[in-house]
Design a protein that fits this description.
single chain; 4-stranded parallel beta sheet; elongated; 7 helices; Rossmann fold; 2 domains; 201 residues; alpha/beta
Length: 201
C-alpha cells in the first residue's frame, strides 16, 4: 500500500482561524481531506483530533506535516516525546518552518539530519514553552489588575423578573410556596434559587 501524507493544524480557541495553516499544508501537497484540525490549547497533547490521528489513522511509512513545531504542543517535553513516538512507529514528521525536516538525506547521512533537527527542536521547543509561560503570566497579571479595579468575572447577574419583589414577598410571608412562585415567575427552578440566593433572602 502506498505511503500516505497527512497534515495537522491546531488553533487555541474556536475564535481563531486555522486557514493560514491549512493553506500552507495544501500548498505542500497534503490533500485537504487528510488534514486533521483541533481547536484546543497547546498546553498538552490531550486533544481529540490529534489523539485520534495518532492512534487510529497514522501507520508506518506515513508522513505527517505540520506548519510549526508548537502546533504539536507548547510544552518542550511533550514535543520531544511525541516526535520520538512518531519516529518509533515509522511516521516521518515534516515541519514546514524547519526546512531540514523536509530534506530527504541519503541513508548514510541521516545522522547529520537527526543532529541538526534535534538542535533546532530543542531551541524552538524552548521558545514555544517560554511563550506559553509568558501568556499565562500576562493572563494572571491581567486578572489581578482587573480584580483591583473591581472588575467582575463570569456571567453577568441575571436580571430580576418584573414581578419578582411582589411574589418573593408572598413567599417570605408564607402566602405562596416556592413551586407556585416559580410557575408565576415563568422561570426554571435553578434560576429561581440562583436569584433567591444572590439577593440575600
Amino acid at each position: 500500500m502506498d505511503n500516505r501524507i497527512y497534515g495537522y493544524a491546531r488553533v487555541s480557541s474556536r475564535e481563531q482561524n486555522e486557514d493560514r495553516q491549512i493553506e500552507a499544508l495544501k500548498s505542500f501537497g497534503v490533500p485537504e481531506g487528510n488534514i486533521i484540525i483541533d481547536k484546543a490549547s497547546g498546553k498538552d497533547t490531550e486533544r481529540v483530533g490529534y489523539q485520534y490521528m495518532k492512534q487510529q489513522i497514522l501507520r508506518k511509512g506515513d508522513t505527517l506535516v505540520i506548519k510549526e513545531l508548537d502546533r504539536l504542543s507548547r510544552n518542550k517535553a511533550d514535543i520531544k516525546r511525541e516526535l520520538e513516538v512518531f519516529k518509533k512507529i515509522g511516521v516521518r514528521v515534516k515541519i514546514l518552518d524547519i526546512p531540514t525536516t523536509l530534506t530527504d538525506f541519503p541513508p548514510e547521512q541521516m545522522w547529520v539530519m537527526d543532529m541538526i533537527n534535534s538542535i533546532l527542536i530543542e531551541v524552538l521547543g524552548s521558545i514555544a514553552e517560554n511563550e506559553r509561560n509568558k501568556i499565562r503570566t500576562r493572563q494572571r497579571e491581567g486578572i489581578e489588575a482587573a480584580k483591583k479595579k473591581n472588575v467582575r468575572f463570569g456571567r453577568p447577574p441575571a436580571p430580576l423578573p418584573d414581578n419578582w419583589q411582589e411574589i418573593i414577598t408572598d413567599v417570605k410571608e408564607g402566602r405562596k410556596k416556592p413551586v407556585e412562585a416559580i410557575r408565576e415567575l415563568e422561570i426554571s427552578r435553578s434560576h429561581y434559587y440562583r436569584l433567591y440566593s444572590k439577593n440575600d433572602y
